[in-house]
Amino acid sequence: MSGCAVEVKDLTVRFGNHVALEKISLCVPAGARLAIVGPNGAGKSTLLRAILGLVPAREGTVEVGGEPPARIAPDWVAYVPQVKTLNRSFPAISLELVISGLRRRWPGRISREDRARAEGALALVGGERLAGRPIRRLSGGELQRVYLARTLVSEPRLILLDEPLTGVDAVGEADFYHILEEYQERTGVTLFIVTHDWDVATYHSTHVLLIDRKLITFGPPKEALTEECLRKAYGHLGHSHEMLRARLWRND
Amino acid sequence: MIEALTYPFMQRALAAGVLVALLASYYGVFVVQRGLSFLGSGLAHAAFGGVALGLLIGLQPLWVALPFTILVALGITWIRDRTELGGDTAIGIFFAISVALGIIFLAWKQEYTENAFALLFGSILSVEWSDLWLTAGAMLLPIATWRLWGRWAYATFDRELARADRLPVGRDDYFLAVLVAVAVVVAVKVVGIMLIAAFLVIPAASARLVARTFVGMTWLSMALGVGSTIVGLGTSYSLDVPSGAMIILVQALIFLILFLFRR
Question: Does the predicted model carry a pTM greater than 0.90?
Answer without folding.
Answer: no
